[in-house]
Design a protein that fits this description.
The structure is a single chain. By secondary structure, this protein is α/β, with parallel strands linked by helices. The chain folds into 2 domains: 151 residues, FAD/NAD(P)-binding domain (3-Layer(bba) Sandwich); 139 residues, 3-Layer(bba) Sandwich (FAD/NAD(P)-binding domain). It is 32% helix and 25% strand. Strand 26 and strand 27 form a beta hairpin. The longest helix has 28 residues. The structure holds flavin-adenine dinucleotide. Flavin-adenine dinucleotide binds next to helix 1, strand 2, helix 2, helix 5 and helix 8.
Length: 402
Amino acid sequence: NSKPKIVVLGAGYAGMMTTKKLMQQLQPEEADIVLVNKHNYHYQTTWLHEVAAGTINHNQARIMIRDIIDPNRVRLIYDSVVRVNRDDQRVVLENSEIDYDYLVVSLGFETNTFGIKGMDENAFFIQDIDSCQLIREHIEYQFAQYKNSEAKEDHNLTILVGGGGFTGVEFVGELAEKVPQLCKKYDIDPNVPKIINVEASPSILPGFDTDLVAYAKTSLQERGVELREGTKIQACTEEGFIVGEGNELIKAGTVVWTGGVTGNSVLADSGFELTKGKVTVNSDLRAPGEENIFILGDCAWVMNKKEDRPYPPTAQAAMQHATTCANNLKALLHHQPLEQFVFSDKGTVASLGVTDAMGTIFEGTKLYGKPAAAMKKVVDNRYLFLLGGLNLFLKKGKVRPF
Ligand code: FAD
């Protein structure tokens, strides 16, 4: 078989969209396409906080890969990538190996605990569907256990969230919806459970517009979320966080760390040159010095040349990377010049619960409350349309009434 082989690693936003576009743009005789992913499903990473809080069912957040990618056109391998051997153009998987002519690395993020003592051992992470189901079940177990125990320890109903960035804030916003429901379900006084967010910076959502941050704070606090800003986590123990100069212990029955992410560790294990865990790619999205390897999504730093710093890692960017990558793979096959990636910022909206959100759209227009929540759902549903058309939207779309 003399056809070139394109291997895509990871079926997240970047990997799925790249594969889909390759399927559309290349004739079967032009190249073989292989997609490797840990699971037989793709999941919406941007909905994971909802899965973890239990405000949506995990099945709504996942999509069978073969429902989107034609297995007759693309070879689907469900296995974990261990590392890439660039010298002999092979990818080592847990259960086999595969060679490539062109490689796309789109394996997403991994949680980073920045070496905070005890965090890896004692905290839950919002990492994937499985880790989020564990969080959901653990929280519910705490409520059931509390109801059934003689000596009630109120702190067991405290949910402690480390990190007040985008994910941490979206997660506590969902918890503020879920906890009252759990109180009803288990007949528990709603004043007992606590939701506490701990952030080391002077304010939650560092880097966000101050009006939006103020809105988010009021919304969360009014719904009972306690914000501990300017509070450094010294360590995480089985009991909770140890914080601040005075080593105060905040006890909790559930501890979740959302304070940091980095690129997938496969990058380091494959010997790529890394900056803070990710590869700084060329403007055509190839790894420096590599003719045939593209690195996309949360595994890549793509430089914003105007501001001389990388763009933030987002699903929005990952999908745009996919378009450029698919075009550039086609160009490589046809010995044509490659295009440069240009990011088109459509804005960012953070949800604060089922009917509340805030963010910016269209170059800085600020949105709050229900219109922002509606916009967030439009963004979510738009992705489903792009990926799987009307069918996928009808199956998995967010059409919750306000
Ligand atoms: P991912 O979508 O994470 O996909 C990686 C894929 O690789 C997964 O399918 C995974 O199973 C697979 N994989 C990982 N390791 C291996 C392995 N070793 N072998 C095989 N397969 C593997 N961005 C926005 O633009 N807007 C938002 O509102 C937003 N909200 C967010 C909310 C939360 C709670 C989180 C966590 C993130 C949010 N983001 C948001 C960021 C966004 O989700 C990421 O930037 C995006 O998922 C990156 O896409 P990706 O394709 O690089 O990786």
